[in-house]
Amino acid sequence: MPSNLLLFLPLLGGYTFIHLFHFTRFRAQSLTGHNLVFEASLAGFLSVALTRCVIWCVDALGWGGGLRAWVTDHMGATPYLGTVVGGFLVAPLAAVVCNLAVGIWQRWQRPEGVAGAEDVPEDRPDASMDTEPAKPEPLPGLLELSQRVALDRAIRNSGNDLLIFLHDAAHRAQTDKMTALLSMSDRKVYVGWVTRSPSLRPGDQFVRILPLMSGCRGHDDLGVRFTTFYPDERYLRECPEEQRKSFQHLQPEDFAVIVPLSEIRDAHYFDLNFYSAFFSQQVNEKPSTSGRRRKKSPSGR
Known about the structure:
Blueprint: H1 3-20, H2 22-28, H3 33-60, H4 64-75, H5 81-109, H6 139-158, H7 161-175, E1 179-184, E2 188-194, E3 206-217, E4 224-229, H8 233-238, H9 241-244, E5 257-260, E6 264-270, H10 272-278, H11 280-284
Antiparallel strand pairs: 1-2, 1-6, 2-3, 3-4, 3-5
C-alpha cells in the first residue's frame, strides 16, 4: 500500500471526527482552511494513538496473533496498516460515543421531574410549563441534547454579539414566547420570534424570523411606525368559518421572513405589553406642528 495513503486515512478519520462530534463540528464552521486541516490532523493522530494502545493491549493478552495474520493475508504486510485502518474506523465511532456521553451528562445534571429548557420543541412554545416526570431519553434525544449544548457553547465562544443575541432570542422564543425587534439597513423593522439559532458557517449568514408585525422608521426621528400585522395561530384558528375556508391552507410559518445578518443594524427584545403601555401612543402619533420652531423673518421678528 502506498505510504501516502497511510497518511491520508488518519487525516480523513480526523476530519470525520470533527464533523461528527458536536463540540468540534460547530466550531469548525468558523475555521479557515489551514486551521481546519490542523485540527483534523490532530484528531486523526489521537484516533491512531488510541487504536495503537488497543493493539498493544490485545497483544499483551495474547489475542493478537490471529488478527494480525488475517490483516496480513487480506491487506498485505504493510507495517502499521492495521493501526491506520483501525484509527480511521475508530474516529466516527468515538464521535458518536462522545456525543452520547455529553447528552447523558447533561440529562443527569438536570433536576428530576422538570423538563429542561433545551427539551422544548419548536412547535410547542408552552411545553416548558410541563411538570410531569421526565421519561428516559432515547438515543436520538440524547444526540439532539448534545447538539444543542455544543451549538450554545460554539456561538458564545466564537460568535459576535449579534449572533449571541439571536441565539438567545431563538431560545427565549421557545421558552417564554419573547419577541425580538430587528431594524434593517433600509429602515424596515420586524417584530417577531426568531425560529432558529444562527449558523457560524460563512455561507449561511441569514436568520429566520416569524413576524408578528412590521413597519419602518421615520426619516426625521427614526421612530417606529408599524404598518403590517401578521396573523398568528390563534387568529387563524378563531376567525369566522366563512373566512377560514378561504385560507385554511395557510399556517403561521408561511409568513416567515429570512433576512441577511449583514442588513441588520440593531436588534433588541420587544415586549408587546410594555410597548403598548408606554410607547405605542407616543410613537404612532403624528408629530405636532405646534412644537416646530418658526422660521424667522428677514427683519428678525
